[in-house]
Amino acid sequence: MVNLGVLGPLVAQRDDGSTIDLGARKQRRLLAVLAMHRGHSLSIGAIVEAMWDDPPASHAVVLQGYVSGLRKALEPSRAPRAEARLIVTTSTGYMLTLDAANTDAGRFEAAVEQARAAFSAPSNRPWQPATPPDRTEVALAASALDDALDLWRGEPYAELDDSLAAHGERSRLEELRVQAHELRAAMRIALGDAHGAIAGLESLASVQQHRESLAMLRAVAFAQAGRQVDALATLRAFRSDLLDDQGLDPSPAIAALEEQLLQQRLGELVLPGSHETAGGNGDAPTGIAGAVAQGSGKGAADEASAAPPAPALAQADAPTLKVGIVDDHPIFRMGMVGLLESLPGLSVVVDADGPDTAREQVTGEVDVLLMDLDLDGASGIELTRELLGVHPGLKVLVMTMHDEPDWVDRSLHAGAHGYLIKSAQADEIERAIHTVARGGFVVDRVAARVVREALSGRQDDGSKR
User: Ranges for the OmpR/PhoB-type domain (predicted)?
Assistant: First the structure.
């Protein structure tokens, strides 16, 4: 059997650990495209779009050659006229039939799901499970999560460079990786390893300044480690960055956590049987060792259980939003659908490749629609105006490659509630969807900067006249 590594440069190995030579770069790129949507048939047109910016005139013949080369490399013992088992021909193109367990991305996702099952916490209290889990199960799941995070060797599907076709799937996997780090930190807090939780989140703090769950976990870990000043400073810095950069206020969960920290009423943080690392015996076992270790004795967890109950945080969970996407690039659209389905509180109900399918699928029940502006000759701006005329309650969030001020201006005048560049990351997309669903307006930082520069240029020109 073949095992693929896509969480970094593409690698293929057999069960005995031997590496498979996948051939030239374009041939490897083809396998990366197929692996990105394994189990799904990709049309020739979609593959060509992901393979070349400017396809050669003989692209069909070239593509057949790459497929033949990959089949020989992956299935060297296959008879000349026997049907291929891994890269199969479909009615529209090709499909990779590899199971999820035979890819590092699939194993990573399975480990995250296992960890979530062992430690299920609400989004507004990510450090505290709704029901107390078994500490041994948490410890074992945490260990498996560490192994899964070690599978990452770099940017997923590296052979696809900065191709737009890979953006949705890369964003989905990167979002899952961040969630895995947060989940691992929450487990460390529950197992009494505050210092490990702080260290595990440090690398994310500088690149995820607007991520609420990360700020809350860091604050709780600092408090558990006895660093009250750092805990409060973390929440205040998050509030300031969010307001300065995006003009948004944090959710009520941040204010509630801040109040609990000021009153020193966080409540019980450590699972029974685990060992608190802050303010206790420095020689006590920590992390997984502490969780699995048997023994008794009154520790920080016992003392915390006798403290007055902490005030309940405001419930952050909202009804599921029905969202959709209109985009004529099939592989990008497939990746975005996967990303949207992976984000909590979202359900994809529209998957349209152009105006005709959008008109058929969009109903009054759709909350937010992501709209491309170039739709194979049709105008996303005009489609936005048309759909809003039929469904006035619909919120349209433009998602495009155009960052020119004129495009932003015309889109917003057509009724769009937001404007994102397609390079936006998962947390930006998620936040934008929820913001426009509430009736707010969002303009991508890249687009906003371009608009500001254009306005500044106009003002400078006017001052010179």
Answer: 1-98
CB 417 within 8 A of CB 390: no
DSSP per-residue string spanning 364-399: TT--EEEE-SEETTEEHHHHHHHHHHH-TT-EEEEE
CB 396 within 8 A of CB 369: yes
Residue 15 CB contacts under 8 Å (≥ 6 apart), including other chains: 1, 3
- Polymer length in residues for the chain: 465
Among the listed residues 356, 358, 354, the one whose alpha carbon sits nearest the alpha carbon of residue 374: 354
Which element (helix H / strand E) includes 346? strand 346-352
Task: Specify the CATH number for 321-455; select among 2.160.10.10, 3.40.50.2300, 3.40.50.2000, 3.10.450.50.
Answer: 3.40.50.2300
Q: Which CATH architecture has domain 103-152+165-305?
A: Alpha Horseshoe (1.25)
Over range 421-429, report the average pLDDT: 86
Six-digit token string for 149: 């995070």
400: left (phi over 0), alpha (psi -120 to 50) or beta: beta
Report whether pLDDT(461) > 70: no
| Structure token pair of residue 223 | 């408090």
Of 318, 316, 282, whose CA–CA distance to 300 is shortest? Answer: 282
Residue 421: which residues within 8 A CB-CB, separation 6 or more?
399, 400, 401, 403, 444, 446, 447
Q: Give the other-Cβ count within 10 Å of 370's Cβ.
A: 25
Q: Using DSSP bridges, classify how beta strands 418-421 and 442-443 pair: parallel, antiparallel or unpaired.
A: parallel
pLDDT at 96: 97
Top-confidence residue, 105 or 80: 105
Angle CA 378–382–385, to nearest 5: 150
Which residues, in sequence order, are CB contacts of 178 under 8 Å at separation 6+? 204, 208, 211, 214, 427
CATH match for 2-99 among 3.30.300.180, 1.10.10.10, 3.40.50.2000, 2.40.160.20: 1.10.10.10
